[in-house]
Every structure is written in C-alpha cells, then in structure tokens.
Amino acid sequence: MRRASAADLEDLLALETRCFSEGDGLFHRRQLHYLLKSPHCAWFIAGHFEGAVCVLVAANGRRRWGRLYSLAVDPQYRKQGVARRLLAAAFAWLREQGVTTVRAEVKSANGAARHLYADLGFTEEGVLPDYYGPGDPGIKLYRPL
C-alpha cells in the first residue's frame, strides 16, 4: 500500500478504465491530474495497481468531513481484501487530517459494494434519484471515523 503521486497518472487512468464506464463515474485524465495534485485529496494504491482509493477532505465553513470519492479494484483482484486494505489506509489518512466522518455514494444496483460498505460501518442515509443517470439512482452513505 502506498500513496499515489502525479507519476501514477497513466496507471490510475488504466485502472479506472478497467473498473468503470462513463455511467459509473469514470475519471478522465484532466480530473485525475487535478486530484493527484490537490492538497485536499489523497490516493492510495494497492500493490501494482490492483486497486486504488481516492478520498477528499471537504468543508462547508463550519464542518469538515471526508468524502470517499473513488474506490476501484481490478476485477481479477476482487474478493481478496484489496478494497478493505485501501479503505483502512484512506480512513487513517482522513483521521490524520482531523476528519471524524466520511461520506460516499454508491450505485443502488451495486450489491457487492453496498455489502462491503455495510460491513465497514457505513449507514445508508437516503436515495439520490438519477444520480448515475436517468433511472440509475445512487445511495448516500455515512460513516463515523
């Protein structure tokens, strides 16, 4: 497990395209480049790009929280604990930033991800109609750190 840098852009882009489609929230080169350089963002990589997680520190002027922005595990490495290890690293970094809660969204139809998040202490807080496109709702998630 290691923290990603701008030098990882191409490999992260390749991982994103192996894991997501346009309708799933696929990051493009410009977005990845921006996120890799942001001081409010951290990417963690498992192994040699078996998976990656992106978390952000957000604030609204009164409160700070973490946002799980992306979790990608290469299909050939799924169900091997990669996502759990990535999220543990992400949560540790968020705690170091003084964050006490994390929020996320997940496709309502993604049962595997919803099960993982529930196992890790996330609570489903509501439905986001058409969040991933027309007729493709998302679920809002919340977890105290």
Mean pLDDT: 92
Q: Which geometry do the CA atoms define?
A: globular
Distance, first to last CA: 20 Å
SSE string: EHHEEEHEHEE
Strand line-up of the largest beta sheet: 1-2-3-4-5-7-6
Low-confidence stretches: none
Beta-strand portion reads: 25-35%
- Could you estimate the helical fraction of the residues in percent? 25-40%
Radius of gyration: 14 Å
Number of strands: 7
Structural class: alpha+beta
Q: How many H/I helical runs?
A: 4
Which sheet architecture does the biggest sheet show? 7 strands, mixed
Question: Overview of this structure, please?
Answer:
By secondary structure, the chain is an alpha+beta fold. 30% of the residues lie in helices and 32% in strands. It has 4 helices and 7 strands. Strands 1-2-3-4-5-7-6 form a 7-stranded mixed sheet, with helices on both faces. The model has no long low-confidence stretch (mean pLDDT 92).
Give the topology.
Blueprint: E1 2-3, H1 9-19, H2 29-37, E2 41-46, E3 51-59, E4 64-73, H3 82-96, E5 101-107, H4 111-119, E6 123-128, E7 138-144
Parallel strand pairs: 4-5
Antiparallel strand pairs: 1-2, 2-3, 3-4, 5-7, 6-7
Helix pairs in contact: 1-2
